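Please, does this match?
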Amino acid sequence: MSAGLYLFSKNLRENELHRNLFDFTSVILLSISVYAKPHAALFAFVIVFFILVNKFKKEGLSLAYIVKFLASGFAFSVLFLGFLYLYESLDEFFLFYIDINLGYGNKIGLPERIFNAFVVRSTTEPGLNYFVKHLYLLLTLILPVILLLRKRFWNIKSLFIVVFSVVTIISISIPGTNYGHYYNFILLSLPLILGFIGEELGEIWQHIYKSALLLLCTVFFSYSLIEHSNRYEDLKGKDKSYYNKLVRTDVSRSLIQMANELSIKSPKLAIFDWRNEIYIETGFMPATHYTMPERLIGGQVPDEKIISKARVIYLDDLKKNKPDFFLVAKGTTYSYWDMTLNAMKQMPDIYEYFSDNYSLVGDQSDLLIYLRNDHIKP
C-alpha cells in the first residue's frame, strides 16, 4: 500500500508528465494490500478513486486506459481467489478473514469508537503513541480549515489528503478500542499532511519547518530505539550459551532442555494461552493453525458459526500434527480471557483428545506443561 500511495503521489504533482504505468502499478499493489488486512480496502478504494479523478482532470479517460485500469485492479484477485477455489478454501477465507476481522471490537456508534481510539488512553499504551495519535487527530481537524481559508480546499491534492486522513481515523477506530498495530496506518498519511502544510509556508518558514521536522524525527526514532532496547533482558554476566542468547523466558528454556533430553527432532508445540513468543523463543513448530485459542472461545468475535468451525479445525490439526508439547494457561496473567483447563473443558471433543494423549510434566511461568504420552518413559 505504501508503494502504491507513493506511485500515485508522483502523478499527483501538478505540471508534471502523467505516467499511466504508475497508475496501473499502483492499482495492482493496492489490490494486493486488501488481502493483508480488510481495513486496507478503505484506503485502497480512496486512492484508486483519486487516481481516476486525477487522470480524468489531467488528460481525460480513454477506453484503453479504463480497460488496463480494470485489469490491473482485478488481476491479483482473480488469481488469488481462483487459487482458493481450486483448493476448496473460499468459504473458509471469507468466514475467517472477512467476518472475523470486520467483527472485531465494540458494537457502538462510530463517534464513540473514534473517541475511544483517539482520545482515551489505554492503560498499556506508550506515551509516544498517545502523543502521535492526538497530533494526527488535531492536524486532521485543522487542515480543512486552513485549506478553506486559503481557498485551496477543492484542489484534487487537497481533497485527497483530507479524505485520506479522515479514512485513516475511521479505519483505526473500527474496533472501537486501542489496538496498537492499527495506528501504523497513521504513517501512511502523516508525512503527506506534514509535507502539504510545509508547501503552504513561505520560503523562510519552510527552512525552519524542515529543520523542526528533522529534529522531531531524530528525537522520535532515538526514543523509539531506546524504548525498544529496554524491553529486552540484559544478558550481561549470564551464561553465554546459544540458547541463553536466544531465549528469554524460563519455560522456553525448559522446553528446549526437555526436547534435547528426549531427542525429539523438530518438536511441535500447541499453546492454550496467549503466549506466541514461546514459539519464537524455542523454534518449535506450531501444531495448529490457531497459535492461541482465542477463536475457539469467541474472545473477540462471539459468532457461533466461527467458533464451531474454529474448534473443528483446531481438533483436526491436533490429530494430524500430534504436538509433542502442549502448554495450558493456569490463569489469565497473559491473556484477556480464560484459557485454562476449565475453558478447554467447555470443548468436550478437544478436551477428550487432550486428556487421552497428554500428561502433566511441569508447572512454570503460569503455564502447565504437558508432554505427549508416547514420549514418557515407563
